[in-house]
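Q&A log
Question type: sequence-to-structure
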Amino acid sequence: MIRALSRWWHGRRPPGTLIDFETWNTVCTALPPVARYDAATRTRLHLLAEQFLREKAIDGAGGIEPDLRLGAWIAIQAAIPILNLGLDWYDGWYSVIVYPDDFRALHTYTDEAGVVHQTTRVLAGEAWHGGPVILSWAAVAREGSAEPGDDNVVIHEFAHKLDMRNGSANGFPPLHGDMDRERWSRVFAHAFTDLKDRMRYREMLPVDRYAAQSPAEFFAVASEAFFMDPRPLKAIWPAVYAELALFYRQDPARTP
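Response status: OK
Response body:
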């Protein structure tokens, strides 16, 4: 079924532009990261999103049939984190699978005693190492009316994909040559501890509480905040913001 859907997607993509004017304008207005970009940067984002659509398959599941509007919404948001990195950062996997709504996923884990457990969770998104990104279209569509501070499941899951380029999702993506690995570890470990303290004492949180689940989730959630509502993140954890700015090669808090 996935192969058939992939052929459907590739067969229906026109040779020219893949993101129509109306969809592009809607995204530019609705999404805070895109609204902050100047005209030249938006043009680069547009081209990168279309390149994404040409190289990745958008597969439907659970009865949904992908179309170019659906693909455009996902591609534009997926292109935001790699705007100044390039599409090569998404190498090694091929497709995005879209369900109409949140979906159930079976997870297996081993506890400290060595006992294997299986649990079923309802998710809005999931990223597989070496495999697809899985998204809820309902969650993606909600981001069309997002306000600063709202979640962004696309940025979240694609941040996991970047994180996994080091072999696993652990909150430590491959860093650029001008970045200090020890500083990254120190900064993120300190913020991770501070987040748990803030939750305990009910202090202001610059990121969603879900970031406390693990270092991998902290990186993904912090990436959401970095792009969606960067100023609180920069105000409370300036060192985290600085590391993310170096990694993503963007400075969203500087733009209006």
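Response note: The first helix runs from residue 2 to 12.
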